[in-house]
Specification:
21% of the residues lie in helices and 27% in strands. It contains four helices and eight strands. It has one domain. By secondary structure, it is an alpha+beta fold. The mean pLDDT is 91.
Length: 149
């Protein structure tokens, strides 16, 4: 994981437990939210209906999600870390193409509040409007791009 990306997330005041794919059992089973950091090493074509942007350039991206179902954060992040899966959510189209991933588990966190905090210091920007936030009335997107790699 990029030290700069990790540092930029910390600069927003968001804290929690970092988890990597080989360490998923240390992720909490509690409910909350998470920030999934993923790196794309090449251009990725999105292919999502009703999403105007067609591709993402190489770089670091953050996806902010909630984990309020059974199994909590561990269960949701475990699914994201799986290398192959049926594309159910928007983010599934990126996680299968990511060359590096890590997740920040935020116990009792709320995804929309995390998105607002990440956007405030201008260290991240909306990557694709509507991505991962079709059921959200508050956020333009739940996928953010790092402005500094």
């Amino acid at each position: 994981m990029s030290d700069q990306t990790k540092s930029n997330i910390a600069a927003t005041g968001i804290s929690g437990l970092w988890v990597i794919p080989g360490d998923i059992e240390n992720a909490p089973e509690a409910k909350g939210a998470y920030v999934l950091a993923l790196r794309l090493s090449r251009v990725v074509h999105i292919g999502i209906p009703r999403v105007d942007q067609e591709q993402l350039m190489p770089g670091w991206y953050l996806y902010v999600g909630s984990a309020n179902g059974s199994g909590g954060i561990r269960s949701r992040v475990r699914r994201h870390f799986r290398p192959s899966k049926k594309a159910h959510w928007h983010i599934d189209r990126l996680t299968v193409k990511a060359v590096e991933m890590a997740a920040l588990a935020v116990l009792d966190g709320h995804e929309c509040e995390l998105v607002r905090r990440l956007l405030r210091p201008r260290l991240f920007e909306v990557a694709i409007p509507g991505f991962g936030s079709t059921d959200c009335r508050y956020c333009e997107s739940h996928l953010l791009a790092s402005l500094a790699s």
